[in-house]
Amino acid sequence: MSLLSGWRRGSHAADGFEFPTYRDGAGPGVVVMHESPGLTPEVVRFGRELVDEGFTVVMPHFFGSAHEAPRRMEAARVIPRICVSRDFTMVATGRTTPVAGWLRSLSRHLHAEAGGVGVGAVGMCLTGGFALAMMVDPSVVAPVVAQPAVPVPLGPRRAADVGLDAGDLATVRDRVRQGCHVLGVRYRDDWATGTRFETLTEALGEGFLRVELEGSGHATLTAERHPDAVDAVVAFLRARLLPAA
Questions:
Q1: What is the CATH number of domain 8-241?
Q2: pTM for this prediction
């Protein structure tokens, strides 16, 4: 049986893009964005955990397989395709992902349907910085940046870049000053995250909440999940989206 059995399949079109989506749950909305190589069983299980915590979870499917265990070397096939795709930015600095408008539209749509004070956004690895791009829209009140790996950290400039253009970074700063904190999660020695946590700390100050795990793992919430990371994300989402609780 598919791990996505019970999830309602749909799609969302906006800003020149259209991607499939999977939705389940009740309560405030959370957008969970998968990592490479795709919408893997580990990502689906994490989404299910959030459903069980009382959230409406929407998982877009951007690339790669959906719900199946990745085929051998699938990541090696997926990454080159993403690098040449106009949908995503892998190496450019000072640029917001092209799918930001689509994600913001999805967030507004989810908020309108699920209600509450706003929605959460969880990005991982290649999509880690997308949560920052999404919080430009006021509907996103609980952004989670998990092991952000884009742009690929080749050289100090790319390693420090957080995947936002200057205008969006200024808006993120303003929102943080207004009380919208950002949660960041990574393994401390994960080379793929570069020095982005230091950049975000400098830009956002105490509004950037850092959870750094010992070791050189990468996928904090999925393949190399750490219970402290999962607990921190759940607690952050509950505090931001279920304040009465």
A1: 3.40.50.1820
A2: 0.93
**pLDDT, tens digit (0-9, with 9 covering 90-100), for 52-91:** 999 999 999 998 877 556 555 555 555 555 554 566 666 6
Which helix H or strand E contains 197, and what residues bound it? helix 196-204
- Describe the chain by its helix, strand, coil percentages, rounded to 5: 40, 20, 40
The contacts of residue 106 (CB under 8 Å, 6+ apart) are 12, 14, 21, 31, 58, 60
The Cα 189–Cα 140 span in angstroms is 29
CA distance 184 to 201: 10
> Exposed, middle or buried: residue 238 (CB in 10 Å: 0-12, 13-18, 19+)?
middle
Please identify which residue in the block is written with the tokens 């070791």: 215
Q: Is residue 129 within 8 Å of residue 98, measured between CB atoms?
A: no
H/E segment holding residue 52? helix 41-52
Taking only the tens place, the pLDDT of each residue in 119-167 is 999 999 999 999 999 999 999 999 999 999 998 888 999 999 999 999 9
